[in-house]
Design goal:
Distance between the termini: 74 Å
Structural class: alpha/beta
Largest sheet: 6 strands, mixed
CATH class of the domain at 249-408: Alpha Beta
Shape: elongated
CATH superfamily of the domain at 249-408: P-loop containing nucleotide triphosphate hydrolases
């Protein structure tokens, strides 16, 4: 798509990168607001800086320099690495990463004039097809950058939307992505121009009709309403499915976490469901549900959900509400974290933000440190803390996780009962063996005496056989 072309709303709005596109990444670090100083203040500041440099050089002759504060640089490095991984997940061939450091963003182009010329020269010299800005761009910034640069320009949100579009497999997922793309596209149509030429109802207002821009906006607005209607139908179907499930006391537990934390691998390790496992970001978009049995013989539905990411676009959170409703209706959340990630604390906080936006941050939660097989013994002690350490790939710690999940569930609580069941009731004895843990078994007077621990809903069906009824 050239800088002058306009998105056509009649076509599915795929804001995409093509496989192998030669790509530059531009990242910005803004350190704060720069204030204008008077002439005397500049002179005083220069003199003070000269004195400080002289003192510092004298000190360095006798002392080794102390550690520098690199927190800002390390944070930028993590963001750049994440953007590169996103670009590669979309199939881009990243040629170079360019970093702009300045006090505040330029309102017109985000980067300064000099940096913009450098980006244009680099893109031309390296024959780049695409430039990805790690920050989100406003509609006006995007237009200015497309005018100034020799190739297509997209921002971080547009890149994430492209990955979602390529990974959506079900009709529901495709609708959710399409809604997010349309809502992203709407304010980014071309500028208004001198006159809109809209038909009016009074003297002097009878123009020739709508401009192309108005037509595009109207078409996109109408399509947004159509997609929302279809998604509402999906939500109704999901509600009906949940209502049918609620008639049987099977609680739902949802896996949540940062993208690429290993949720799908853990899901497969617990369920043997064989869902897609991929090191690429956002490999899972459509929710997966699978029935598993806990050590207490209680059954739960485990749900694998879409991963979260730093500054997840609000349009995506809203569009994927139909999917994230599985999180909202879950009894317990399992927060899966990548123990080997250098940005572990940042990822944890980003997940907390999304959970707060979904208003589910008060739900019971288990924190799981995945990928502990990638840690050394020393790292393991400092990283894991009070979380549950597991390696979904190696099958380490899964029994401890299931036991902790058993304790965290409040619905259908576990009870311990003594029962006396006639030996000829083989079907009932088999059902108890399958659905509860038999702690003791003895045979007396043509009856089987059992002491079992199991779900209250199951033991309640055999109330007539309780040896010590309430």
């Amino acid at each position: 798509m050239t800088a002058s072309s306009r998105p056509q709303p009649s076509v599915s709005p795929r804001l995409s990168t093509n496989t192998g596109e030669r790509t530059l990444i531009v990242a910005c670090e803004f350190t704060g607001r720069k204030y204008r100083l008077t002439h005397s203040a500049r002179l005083a500041k220069g003199a003070m800086r000269a004195v400080e440099e002289q003192v510092r050089s004298q000190d360095e002759a006798f002392e080794e320099p102390g550690p520098r504060d690199t927190s800002s640089s390390s944070e930028l490095s993590a963001e750049v690495a994440e953007c590169r991984e996103l670009a590669e997940s979309a199939g881009a061939n990243v040629l170079e990463v360019m970093v702009q450091r300045r006090d505040h963003p330029d309102p017109a182009t985000l980067v300064g004039k000099g940096k913009l010329e450098e980006i244009a020269a680099t893109a031309s010299a390296r024959r780049a097809d695409l430039i990805i800005f790690e920050q989100d761009l406003s509609p006006s910034q995007l237009r200015e950058l497309e005018r100034a640069l020799p190739c297509r320009v997209i921002d971080r949100t547009q890149l994430i939307l492209d990955i979602f579009a390529s990974h959506a497999r079900t009709r529901e997922g495709q609708l959710q992505v399409e809604l997010a793309q349309l809502e992203y596209m709407l304010p980014r149509l071309a500028g208004r121009g001198r006159a809109m030429s809209q038909l009016g109802g009074g003297i002097g207002t009878r123009g020739p009709g709508e401009t192309q821009l108005e037509t595009d906006r109207r078409k996109i607005g109408r399509k947004i309403q159509i997609v929302r209607t279809r998604l509402d139908a999906v939500r109704r179907i999901r509600r009906q499915q949940r209502q049918r499930r609620s008639s049987v006391p099977v609680p739902t537990v949802a896996l949540v976490g940062y993208t690429n934390a290993g949720k799908s691998t853990l899901f497969n390790a617990l369920t043997a469901a064989g869902v897609l496992e991929s090191p690429r970001l956002f490999a899972t978009l459509d929710p997966k549900l699978h029935l598993i049995t806990l050590p207490s013989r209680r059954r739960i539905l485990l749900s694998d959900t879409v991963g979260f990411i730093r500054a997840l676009p609000h349009t995506l959170v809203q569009a994927f509400r139909a999917t994230l409703e599985e999180v909202e209706t879950s009894e317990v959340l399992i927060h899966v974290m990548d123990a080997s990630s250098p940005s572990l604390d940042v990822h944890r906080e980003e997940v907390e933000k999304v959970l707060r936006e979904l208003e589910v941050d008060k739900k019971p939660r288990l924190e799981v440190m995945n990928k502990i097989d990638l840690l050394s013994a020393g790292q393991l002690g400092t990283t894991v803390g009070k979380t549950i350490p597991v390696s979904a790939r190696e099958g380490i710690g899964l029994d401890a996780l299931l036991a902790a999940l058993d304790r965290a569930l409040d619905s259908d609580p576990l009870e311990e009962r003594e029962l006396r069941i006639p030996q000829q009731e083989g079907a009932k004895l088999a059902a108890l063996d399958a659905g509860a843990v038999v702690l003791d078994r003895s045979f007396f007077d043509q009856a089987v005496h059992l002491r079992v621990r199991g779900p209250a809903s199951l033991l309640g069906r055999y109330r007539m056989y309780w040896a010590t009824p309430d």
